[in-house]
Amino acid sequence: METDTLAAGGVDTISSMAMLGKTALSLLFIVALILALSYLLRRLNRSGGSGRQLLRQVASTSLGPRERVVVVEFNGTWLVLGVGGGQVNKLHETPADPELAASGQAGQFARQLAGRLQGGDSAAATGKQP
User: Fold this and answer.
1) 59 and 71 in contact (C-beta within 8 Å)?
2) Which spans are transmembrane here (predicted)?
3) Where are the alpha helices (DSSP H) in 48-105?
4) In what order do the strands lie in the sheet with 55-62?
5) Integer Cα distance of 34 and 62 in angstroms
6) Of 77, 100, 74, 72, which Cα lies nearest the Cα of 88?
7) What is the CA radius of gyration of the chain?
8) Rounded CA gap, 91 and 70, in Å?
9) Residue 15 class from Cβ within 10 Å (0-12 exposed, 13-18 middle, 19+ buried)?
């Protein structure tokens, strides 16, 4: 009878170890699944999903420690935005020029605009074209 009790105790120990092993494997599988899904989501979000971005930053330049002028392309239109002090103001709007963006001249446009804004040019201040 004593051997039956020992044998039953050994079976209980083996079955509880097997159950613990199954639980650990299930937990590892769930953690691996979560990591794989998060990696996939990051990859999909980085590519833009549909392949065409609705909003694209063309150029940006700093005017001070908290102020920037940003040129953003939205739906075939370039928006020149003043960003600073917790607010965004539209400074100018013009049709997008894909040749200018491809040639790298958009950065030059941003530098010229920033220079005029910093220099206090009267044409830039009044919004009139020279």
Assistant:
1) yes
2) 20-41
3) 98-103
4) 55-62, 68-74, 77-84, 87-95
5) 40
6) 72
7) 31
8) 10
9) exposed
Domain ranges, ordered by start, for the chain: 1-51, 55-126
Decide: pTM greater than 0.70. no
Strands (E) located in the chain: 55-62, 68-74, 77-84, 87-95
- Can you tell me the distance from the alpha carbon of 112 to that of 79, in angstroms, rounded to the nearest whole number? 16
- CA 58 to chain centroid, in Å, comes to 16
How far apart (Å, rounded) are the C-alpha atoms in residues 104 and 113?
15
Tokens of 29: 């599988």
Virtual CA dihedral for 53, 55, 61, 64, nearest 10 degrees? -140
Distance of alpha carbon 69 from alpha carbon 82, whole angstroms: 5
pLDDT digits (tens, 9 = 90+) for 22-79: 999 999 999 999 999 999 988 887 655 455 678 888 888 888 888 999 999 888 888 9
Residue 8: other Cβ atoms inside 10 A: 10
Amino acid identity of residue 29, one-letter, is F
